[in-house]
Every structure is written in C-alpha cells, then in structure tokens.
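help with this record:
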Amino acid sequence: MATKNTELALIRDALLGAREPIFIFSHPSPDGDSIGSTLGVYGILTAAGIKAQPVLPDLPRVYEFLADGIKILKPPVDLKNKIALVLDCGDLSRLQEAGHSLEGAVK
C-alpha cells in the first residue's frame, strides 16, 4: 500500500506531466465553497502553466462574478484518457449525471 506522500507525489507528477487540460469537477447545485475550490484549483494550475478546465453543471447567479472571464464547461464531457479532479464531493454518486463523464478518465 502506498503511503500518503507517495500518493501525493503520484498526483503531483500526473498534474505536472499533463499534456491536455485537467478537468476540475464539483457537485451539482454548487455552493460557495464548491465553486471557490473549483476555481481556486483552476487558478493554481493555470498559474503553474498547467492547462485546466472547470466543469460545473450549473453556476448560481450569485456566484457568477467569481468566474469572470473563465470558460466553464457543463457536463457531459468526454474524458477518455484525460485527467479529472473531483472537488468538494465525498461520494461520486453526488455528481449525479456529471459522474458519467468520469467514465474513461485515467485518473
């Protein structure tokens, strides 16, 4: 069994070695912390020179200002052989229909 440090190193290496955008998902009916974490990780990845793409099923009007100038995709997204991060979601079933996009993702 891999240690936490080994697991984190594998994630780091996958992110840094990504040749295509990394897709960042959150749950449907996102709240402020869900949207904030999704867009925050997007900002960190892009600042590091890593292509990233947020995917949110919906974006409540009250939070639209957070995504100013950021293209947000809506599921479904073809993730075959792509890397996906799922944030603020303790169980993949919470993704509902968006979870089908994860089929075929490599990470």
Remarks:
- The chain has a mean pLDDT of 85.
- Residues 4-102 form a domain with the inorganic pyrophosphatase (n-terminal core) fold (CATH 3.90.1640.10).
